Amino acid sequence: MLFTDSADVTIDGEHDMRFDIQGNRFIVSLTHKDKQTSIVSTIASTAQECLTHAITNISNFYFSVTDDSHSTKQFPFTIEIGIVCGTDLCFVDHKLSSNGEWKCPKHKRNHKTDIVSRWFADKLPVRERDTCNPTCPGIDNAWLDRQPDDKRLGRLANDLTKAETEKMYMHLKKRKPNQSWSEINSNKTKEFDINVNALHDWKKCTRHATFKMLQESMEKENIDIHKLCLVRLI
Fold first, then answer.
1. Beta strand residue intervals within the chain, DSSP E
2. Is the pTM of this model over 0.70?
3. What is the mean pLDDT of the segment spanning 150-162?
4. Highest mean pLDDT among 19-23, 36-40, 46-50, 185-189
5. Which residues, 6 or more positions from 113, have their beta carbon under 8 angstroms from its beta carbon?
6. In the prediction, which pLDDT does 233 show?
7. What is the mean predicted confidence (pLDDT) over 1-15?
C-alpha cells in the first residue's frame, strides 16, 4: 500500500515492513504477526543492508551531478535505531545496540537493545562467530528458500573438503553427476577450484537452486550443516 509519505509492504506470511518519511528522517519498521521476538534477524539485517546500499548510491549519484560532488567521499546519512519509549520513539546510534542496554536521555528509561540489534545481525565478523551455539538449529527458513549467491558459494567451497563436495554434488546434480564431476576434476587441480566449480555447475544447471537443497545434501552425507551458518554471515 502506497501513500504520500509512507508505504506498507508484505515481506512474507509473517513479516510486514512499513516506511515513513518524517521531516528529513526515513523511518523503517519491521513487524511480526505474532510477537516481536519472533522477527527473523536475517530479514531485518538484509533489508537494512539493501536500503543502506540503495540510499547511499542514490545520494552519491545526486552529489555527482550537483555542485556538492565532494560529498561522495562521506557517508551521506546517519543510521539510528528507534526504540519505543512510552508513546514516543526514541533514537539511539546503531553502534550502541550491541551494548545490551541503553538509557534514554530524554525520558531517563532503560531499554533492552537485543531485539533492535537484529537490524545488524549479519554485521559481526565471521571470525568472532566461527562456531555455532550448541543449540543452533541451523539456518532459518528465510534463508533456506533463498538462492545462494556466488560469494557464499565460494565461502562454502572453501569450508568443504573435496570428498565432501563430491558427495554433495552426487545428490545435487540431477543429470549425469559422475560424468560432470570427472570433467570438473580433469580441468582443475586445486581443491578449492574443484569445489567452487562443482557448486557453480549445480547452481547453473538447477532451475531454482536454494540453500535448502545444499542443506539436504549435507544431511544425507552427515556433513556438518552449520557450515551454512557461517556462510550466511559473510
1. 6-10, 15-22, 25-32, 80-85, 88-93, 101-104, 109-112
2. no
3. 87
4. 19-23
5. 81, 83, 92, 96, 97, 98, 99, 100, 101, 102
6. 62
7. 89
* Contact between residue 41 and residue 118 where contact means Cβ atoms under 8 Å apart: yes
Query: Side chain identity at 233, as an amino acid letter?
Result: L
Q: Are 97 and 90 in contact (CB under 8 A)?
A: no
- Provide the 3-class DSSP secondary structure of residue 221: coil
Q: Do the Cβ atoms of 211 and 148 come closer than 8 Å? A: yes
Give the single-character DSSP code of 120.
G
Contact 51, 79 (CB under 8 A): no
- What does the alpha-carbon distance between residue 109 and residue 170 come to, in Å, rounded to a whole number? 57
CB count, 10 Å around CB of 139? 21
